[in-house]
Design brief:
five-stranded mixed sheet, five-stranded antiparallel sheet, Penicillin binding protein transpeptidase fold, alpha+beta, Trypsin Inhibitor V, Chain A
Length: 762
């Protein structure tokens, strides 16, 4: 009976002090208008990447943003005389007192919503006369300082609904995956019923108890005439249906999220001290809008997983994709198994790991040479091994990959075939200082040392740095620093930060155009042939010393992507440690192609700008184009002889067919009579077997009849959609395909449909 006695004393004291409390005229503000709220990191399409908090999920909203049904349900079950009392309800206290006496224990409280709010934000939950006295006095004073609506809004943003959800908005998301404004009567009654004892009525674990409690709330609403009989009947008959957001620490693109957090915490505009910035980030109710494209992120992770499907033996991989024009980082893979529990898995291989760049550094050396007036038809000896004199040191011994010898070649061929011995001579001619300054200007922010070996990638850089630098090539010599965040919005809608991208011209456009057209040949006929995706690509492979690192970095005018492979603790990627010898032209390039084919599937095919000097100028080192022969329907042997005699590199792509015998050429790319530079690669599509499934063929750049022909040979349906790819259709793109779905390389069944978009013919 001691608890009953305590309750009697407390209630008597409350009644006695109400008049005294009302005599106080001081204005109080017992809780800030902006209580601790969770912050959200959002993708570019507004979807949630991560929720940041200190264990309390909360998002403050206005009373108008809460469904009226929830407001009525809470008032009906918690304090039906809320709009009639002055903070302390004497009738409710007496009713609770009678119930406690009859039961011999404290079974019913008489606290108003105002008292509950005061208790939650200022006081403890201890049942003592002194605490109840403080609660009553503060409740009355609060009601003299704020309107009923203001107090109710604060209460509904503060109160705990269970399962980590504080406030109506978080509760609506947690239990129903919707905003509080969209709650139905049945859903509102369920949430209101949780306030008394969230764990007792938890709908996830105790659905029967939760349903009974919900129906009791509906009965109270009917009793107090805030809901009609018909609506009450329908609400009671509604199934529970809780399927809300399963909050977890497992965020989307976790390494990207970490990069965003690092950016925020290092930015003084969000607070003078780290402690201030941390408080704002985790408790400030921010919406941080980012550049991440969730679709392209999924494509990136899928492309890596499709080639590296055994984490116990496969090397790690990283991928960064950047839009050259804006600097927006749209895909960011910093490793795998982030949530494995290992600290090493959380280390960001994209933005924090420094690895030797290998031959991906050669374009910086080449651009430095172009900028000083070196013509690309300049000839160098390309022996298998060479000794480069270094003042005051032993000669630098340089070897080509696989000890290949190339004789005397120009800089275009040296780039296409990544000839180490030529680039060792070239960096000596242009100076290592000039080369590393070029890389730094392009966007490599890592420390670069001006050693001759820089030409072969001895300097280390992050994948993010290298992607950023190559995006400068893709944007015609204009550099934009990588952008992760576009806007930071405060809890009341105020804009705390808005992206201001600065594009700086760091290289002459003409020099970059010459470089890009050289790097295009790396892909069409050189070490990067695995990166061909049916559209212009400029890129470079890179293989580190002893095969410890492998890179491919490539661009289209719309997107630059860098891919790196290697073990976190550097070791050679050679059998038996790996299933194959991993070089830059192998798995990294294949991962790049699979990702980019999907990432650009709905983007127009764009060309890199041509050098103004023209293709026949010695400085460009590019040979004038000539029409290519028509080899369709010839045998592969005959077609190869014709094309190789004309100086072209021939690549074979075999596809299943149902009409022609194996070995017949079904299509060629580039098409017959297209002007093509001698030495370029020509892909021949050749008839093969007849499987039940196949990889989606590359139909980009073809004419309608060619697409339909290939579809017929493969046994798939073609859905042609005539639509312009980009404003006014360029003459050379009229009647050609520019987009397809599924993307190139996706596995499909025979008889399925490939949707293909094609430019108008006029």
């Amino acid at each position: 009976m001691e608890t009953v006695k305590t309750s009697l004393i407390a209630c008597a004291l409350i009644v006695a002090v109400v008049a005294t409390a009302c005599s106080y005229s001081a204005i109080i503000d017992p809780v800030p208008l902006d209580p601790s709220q969770s912050s959200s990191i959002l993708s570019s399409d507004g979807s949630l990447l991560a929720r940041l908090d200190l264990g309390e999920h909360r998002e403050a909203i206005s009373l108008e943003a809460i469904a009226p049904e929830l407001v009525r349900a809470v008032v009906a079950i918690e304090d039906h005389r809320y709009f009639d009392h002055d903070g302390v309800d004497l009738k409710a206290i007496l009713r609770a007192l009678r119930e406690d006496v009859s039961q011999g224990a404290v079974v019913e409280g008489g606290s108003t919503i105002t008292q509950q709010y005061v208790r939650n934000v200022l006081l403890t939950r201890e049942q003592t006369p002194h605490r109840k006295l403080e609660e009553a006095i503060l409740a009355v004073r609060l009601e003299r300082s704020f309107t009923k609506e203001e107090i109710l809004e604060r209460y509904l943003n503060e109160v705990y609904f269970g399962n980590g959800a504080y406030g109506a908005q978080a509760a609506a998301d947690r239990y129903f995956a919707k905003p509080a404004s969209d709650l139905t009567l049945a859903e509102s009654a369920l949430l209101a019923g949780l306030l008394r004892a969230p764990s007792t009525y938890d709908p996830f674990t105790k659905p029967d108890e939760a349903t009974a409690r919900r129906n009791r709330v509906i009965d109270a609403m009917l009793r107090y005439k805030v809901v009609s009989e018909a609506d009450a009947v329908r609400a009671r008959a509604t199934p529970l249906k809780v399927s809300g957001a399963q909050w977890s620490n497992n965020t989307v693109a976790p390494h990207f999220v970490d990069a965003v957090k690092r950016w925020f915490l290092a930015n003084p505009i969000f607070g003078a001290t780290l402690a201030e910035r941390e408080h704002l980030l985790y408790q400030g109710g921010l919406k941080i809008e980012t550049t991440l494209d969730t679709h392209r992120q999924e494509l990136a992770e899928s492309a890596i997983a499709s080639f590296l499907d055994n984490p116990s033996t496969n090397p790690a991989a990283s991928l960064v994709a950047i839009e050259p024009e804006t600097g927006h980082v749209v895909s960011y893979v910093g490793g795998r198994d982030y949530w494995s529990g290992s600290d090493a898995a959380k280390f960001d291989l994209a933005g924090q790991a420094l690895r030797p760049t290998g031959s991906t550094f050669k374009p910086f050396v080449l651009l430095a040479a172009i900028a000083t007036g070196v013509a690309l038809d300049t000839q160098y000896e390309g022996p298998s091994k060479i000794k480069i004199p270094i003042t005051g040191q032993e000669p630098w011994v340089v070897r080509n990959y696989d000890e290949q010898s190339f004789g005397k070649i120009d800089l275009v061929e040296a780039t296409v075939h990544s000839v180490n011995t030529v680039f060792a001579q070239l960096i000596a001619d242009v100076s290592a200082n000039s080369a590393v300054q070029t890389a730094a200007a392009a966007g490599v922010r890592s420390l670069l040392r001006p050693y001759p070996s820089a030409a072969l990638g001895s300097n280390e850089a992050t994948v993010l740095d290298v992607a950023s630098a190559y995006s400068t090539f893709a944007s015609d010599g204009l550099h934009v620093d990588p952008v992760f965040v576009t806007k930071v919005v405060g809890p009341t809608g105020e804009i705390l930060y808005s992206e201001i991208s600065r594009r700086d011209r760091v290289f002459a456009g003409e020099d970059v155009r010459i470089l890009n057209h050289t790097l295009e040949q790396v892909v069409t006929r050189g070490t990067g042939i695995n990166a061909r995706i049916g559209r212009p690509v400029a890129g470079k492979t890179g293989t580190g010393q002893d095969y410890k690192d492998a890179w491919f970095v490539g661009s289209t005018p719309q997107l630059t992507t860098a891919v790196w492979l290697g073990f976190i603790k550097p070791e050679p990627m050679l059998p038996p440690r790996t299933s194959e010898k991993i070089t830059g032209g192998g798995l990294p390039t294949k991962i790049w192609a699979r990702f980019m084919a999907g990432a650009l599937a709905e983007s127009p095919i764009l060309e890199f700008p041509l050098p103004e000097l023209g293709l026949d100028d010695p400085k460009t080192g590019l040979i004038p184009a000539s029409p290519i022969a028509d080899v369709v329907m010839l045998s592969i042997e005959t077609a190869r002889d014709i094309l190789e005699a004309a100086g072209y590199q021939v690549t074979i792509m075999e596809i299943p067919n149902r009409q022609f015998p194996p070995g017949v050429v079904l299509a060629q790319l580039p098409e017959a009579n297209t002007a093509v530079i001698a030495g370029s690669s020509v892909t021949l599509t050749v008839a093969g077997g007849e499987p039940e499934t196949l990889d989606t063929p590359n139909l980009l750049g073809l004419f309608a009849d060619e697409v339909l022909f290939v579809g017929g040979q493969l046994g798939v349906n073609i859905n042609l959609v005539t639509k312009s790819d980009f404003g006014v259709v360029r003459k050379e793109q009229r009647g050609r395909t520019w987009q397809q779905s599924p993307a190139v390389g996706a596995r499909i069944e025979i008889g399925s449909t490939i949707k293909v978009w094609i430019n108008p013919t006029i």
